[in-house]
Amino acid sequence: MACIQKTLRGLGVLRQLPRESTVNQTYCRYASSYKYLQVDLDKKTKVAHLTLARKPANSLNCDMMKEIAMATNELDQDRDCKGIIINSCVPNIFSAGLDLTELYQAKELFFQDFWRSLQAMFSTIYGTKVVTMAAIEGHAPAAGCIIALATDYRVMSEGKFNIGLNESMLGIPMNFWVKDAFIATCGQREGERALQLGQMFIPSTALQIGLVDEVVPQELTLPTVQKHMKQWVKVPGGARGLTKSLIRQQAMDNLKAKADEDLLIMTRHMLSQPIQNTIGAYLENMTKKSKR
Length: 292
Ligand SMILES: CCCCCCCC/C=C\C=C\CC(=O)SCCNC(=O)CCNC(=O)[C@H](O)C(C)(C)COP(=O)(O)OP(=O)(O)OC[C@H]1O[C@@H](n2cnc3c(N)ncnc32)[C@H](O)[C@@H]1OP(=O)(O)O
Prior knowledge:
By secondary structure, the chain is an alpha/beta fold. It is 54% helix and 14% strand. The protein is built from 12 helices and 10 strands.
């Protein structure tokens, strides 16, 4: 869609995206194009599954975020696609958030590419007129939660899983577009509380605050999303898509207008010694935990 491409180009990312729409793509083209994703478009139902596939935890490295933005953009432009379901092939983990190993001791140029890829991933999912839904069959901390927040409908599995934005707990201040997306979904009061405290939620609480729309047994998560998707794609696409744009355009415009400022602020924070120390300590803990 021209609008998303304009925004992405405005963000200075995805320069490798084709300018022209690439219609008539085949199953195969999607299936074989990505290293960290499986993308399958069913031309009969017009629903695509975009499956996060970076073991062991779907942590989002720079290339994976670029792939997610590219795949979403390709599907957005494909006349055969009316809906995208985002799920994970890693049992019990939707996504572990940003790949902390890439953020630790990152060089400035690399960090800039990384952050622009995060902005692009979010804005492409958030801005597509195609229906998007997340089947959250496990943990979705931080940027994992951000992917889910960018979609139109979220179904999470029952179980000992967490979802939320824990950045404050990592010693990192929230940025404006993540804050806006959270507040647009859960409201001002929940935003004030959850974002300051860096709260993570179990599925039932996530449901209570509106962070997810439904909680179901794990084996029913994907089928439930597929059932809703079937309904949503029946709504005339032009009217629904324009309505979605109407609702989300201001947030998209804000992100585009302030993307460079966001990058500057985040570069200063993220590459500062105290935050690098926190990330280093966090990584060390994770390594110790997984060795136990
Ligand atoms: C830091 C940036 C903040 C910027 C804030 C402001 C702007 C807001 C915008 C975006 C913000 C994004 C912030 C982030 O996304 S930071 C990442 C936050 N993520 C987490 O805190 C989650 C960390 N992981 C876990 O809690 C668990 O791994 C969990 C997902 C619950 C799964 O647990 P479990 O099933 O027990 O699996 P393991 O812990 O053993 O993990 C398996 C292997 O995966 C590695 N791993 C896990 N998470 C990450 C990660 N985020 N990055 C890199 N690697 C990760 C883990 O080390 C294990 O590896 P190995 O098997 O090799 O030991």
